[in-house]
User: Which sequence fits this backbone?
């Protein structure tokens, strides 16, 4: 599992993710089981060095033998290369165009080639976020592959809106932000609430219980602190909940602002930087 967060305020965007990668298999009785959890997966990327564009992934950690971290760097090389079918014009691009190209690369060029004949197609999500050339406001575009289908990228929110987007492990952040667990609609149904009343009831519950943690004028440092808190809260929730701790490892964080561009705030390396200047 994963927790992936995009937090948008007036000053910019913060992207954050954990580092856990879960290996699934079958136990001796043939039932699905968690075989291992690795703590060093990379799920956050700069999609063009020097440009304010980031990528965030959740779901499957690889496509075939290629890790999403390697594929994201392959895509970055295409964006920064000379192939006109992929390269970005630094002075004239949009985040939506970047998301369209990311969908074409991950889904059409890579995922379908690997999984088109498999009935058990894995789910995969990818967020492209940042600033279009010359724009004053950041954008977030979501790409999701579910059941082998991948619609066109969709905007997470309207251009001028702010807020928190999260994907992967939902439970901890839902309880913190929305004030209830993800299983509440099921509980209402089990208690006898008519199906047609559950939706309106959930709207009322969320209006009354939701906590507006991400205020639009929040300084970018406070947005960073909030994103880290939400990831770390999910990690601890996963650690102490029954079952394998499928969210964990170090927290990677990047901030994207109009004037500073893409900046790493926390970033793990498998090598020591002092030996690799």
Assistant:
């Amino acid at each position: 599992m994963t927790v992936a967060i995009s937090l948008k305020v007036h000053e910019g965007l913060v992207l954050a993710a954990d580092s856990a990668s879960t290996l699934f298999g079958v136990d001796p009785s043939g039932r699905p089981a968690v075989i291992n959890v690795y703590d060093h997966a990379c799920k956050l990327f700069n999609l063009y060095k020097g440009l304010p564009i980031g990528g965030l992934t959740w779901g499957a950690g690889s496509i075939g033998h290629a890790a999403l971290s390697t594929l994201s760097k392959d895509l970055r090389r295409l964006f920064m290369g000379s192939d006109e079918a992929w390269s970005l014009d630094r002075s004239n691009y949009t985040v939506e165009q970047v998301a369209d190209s990311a969908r074409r690369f991950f889904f059409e060029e890579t995922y379908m080639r690997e999984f088109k004949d498999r009935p058990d197609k894995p789910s995969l999500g990818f967020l492209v976020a940042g600033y279009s050339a010359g724009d004053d406001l950041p954008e977030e575009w979501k790409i999701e592959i579910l059941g082998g289908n991948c619609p066109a990228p969709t905007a997470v929110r309207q251009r001028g809106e702010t807020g928190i987007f999260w994907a992967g492990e939902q439970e901890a952040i839902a309880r913190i932000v929305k004030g209830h667990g993800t299983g509440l609609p099921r509980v209402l149904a089990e208690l006898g609430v008519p199906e047609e009343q559950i939706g309106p009831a959930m709207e009322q519950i969320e209006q009354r219980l939701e906590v507006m943690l991400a205020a639009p004028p929040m300084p970018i440092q406070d947005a960073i602190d909030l994103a880290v808190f939400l990831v770390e809260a999910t990690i601890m929730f996963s650690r102490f909940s029954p079952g394998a701790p499928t969210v964990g490892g170090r927290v990677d964080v990047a901030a994207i602002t109009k004037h500073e561009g893409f900046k790493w705030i926390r970033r793990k390396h498998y090598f020591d930087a002092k030996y690799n200047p």
The chain is about 30% helix and 25% strand. The chain has one domain: 3-169+214-275. The chain has a mean pLDDT of 94.
